[in-house]
Amino acid sequence: MATNSIVGWIWLGGVLGVIGYAASLGLASGQKAQVEIEKKKHEAEIRQLNEKMRQTIMTARDGNLDAAIKRFKELDEEYPNQPALLMNLSIAHRASGDLESSMEALDRALKIAPEDWDLVAEKATVLLEVKKPDDAIALAEKIPVRLGRMPERLRADPLWADLPASDRYNALRKKHGVGKVLGETGINTAETIRNQIKSYPADIQKKLEEKHSDIVEP
Length: 218
Prior knowledge:
By secondary structure, the protein is an all-alpha fold. The protein is built from 13 helices and no strands. The protein has helices at about 5-10, 20-25, 30-60, 65-80, 85-95, 100-110, 115-130, 135-140, 150-155, 160, 165-175, 190-200, 200-210. Helix 7 (about 115-130) runs antiparallel to helix 8 (about 135-140). The chain is globular and about 45 Å long. The relative contact order is 0.09.
């Protein structure tokens, strides 16, 4: 996949887990006040990290991948064990062509959040990049319906959209409501097809507009 496609539309940019963190401290008698203090502190840290990640993502989108990777690594040391941060680091590595480092970051993230379906879908996509389509499909089959951004990936990510047809691949597309071509499943009118096209990044949008020039607004 072209680098600009990778950095343009798969970034997550957010960190989850504030509620889970507070709950993990427990709400036993006499601890409630301390829990609230720790919760607010943690929420502030999450806001800070999200802003730092947003700035780093913009650096990557501006084409400064080396600087973005360096910054993500610094943030990883400052805020350890954050799956969304590790996913963004993985995507930056993938966009730079370093698939080994991309997979390492994903595997670290999945040890922390094994049922984060965005992480699972991204690992499946990296498996396609390293020419392991059978492993990629097997992993993608574990993703629940329409999670992990699988409908978008299957429709618009060339790594997924251009896979040769097979029973398992066709079943995966059917599971996520994706037809063989845009408009076959779940998108039934010209208006909804146009709206779907507009939801993609500019480079993918242009290709879809050319393909569906008969229904795209002038």
